[in-house]
Automatic annotation (TrEMBL):
Domain of life: Bacteria
Gene3D superfamilies: 1.10.3730.20
UniProt-recorded name of the protein: Glucose uptake protein
Keyword DNA-binding among record annotations: no
Record keywords: Membrane, Transmembrane, Transmembrane helix
Length: 111
């Protein structure tokens, strides 16, 4: 994936992380404006992902995006919303970080 593709991927991930954070706020408060904002952010994220997929393909873009979002949202849940992770969940987040590194590893790269 090119540098430009990575920038678009980062923008899509930011939109999805923001959308999920706003959606979590809606789940706690029930404020319909928060739900509308979350849906708007999901729309923006998906529109950006279309561009990313055109440039870099589905497998790499979605795999990296999914795992990075998992890690970021786990951190947001803990730091912002006061949620707690079990040791097994912390291990899962750590394995997610390893997964992103392996997925993004350059083709033909050596360890």
């Amino acid at each position: 994936m090119s540098g430009g593709g990575l920038v678009w991927l980062a923008a899509a991930m930011a939109a999805f992380v923001a959308a999920n954070s706003v959606l979590r706020s809606y789940a706690s408060s029930g404020v319909m404006l928060a739900l509308a904002g979350a849906l708007g952010l999901f729309l923006v994220g998906n529109l950006i992902m279309v561009r990313v997929m055109r440039e870099g393909g589905l497998a790499l873009a979605v795999a990296i995006s999914s795992v990075v979002q998992l890690v970021l949202l786990a951190l947001i849940g803990v730091l912002w919303f006061g949620e707690r992770l079990t040791p097994v969940q912390v291990t899962g987040v750590a394995l997610g970080i390893v997964a992103v590194a392996l997925i993004a590893w350059p083709q033909g790269g050596r360890v």
